[in-house]
Amino acid sequence: MRVATSNSAFTRLAQWTARASGRPAAFVISLAVVLVWAASGPLFRFSNTWQLVINTGTTIVTFLMVFLIQNTQYRDSEAVHVKIDELIRVTSHARNALMDLEDLEGPELDEIRAGYEALAERARKARRRGPRGGT
Asked: Dihedrals φ, ψ of 130, to 5°?
């Protein structure tokens, strides 16, 4: 089965930005910009304009990065959901009703979560009782 890929300019930009901004070089460049700005303070007599430059620059970069990284994280999350759904689908004893849980309303999801919390609690109690205390 072949999955279609998106080649839009925005998708490519978002993926590139997410990869590039997570690298050590991005941190070093950001640190260098802040250090140069701080060192230039005495030259500009720590003026309001000098402060405005860093405030405006960081605000703009942060604002744009939020959208680019959110786009990348959303696509990654969707891909993980599809992969997990496929694993549930092909596992013989799995409950296929668990696929697409993210689409359920709060009360339905809470009910399923409560069932799994009860299973986990029973497993912890059995483990505390030891190997002969149950499964």
From this structure: 105, 180
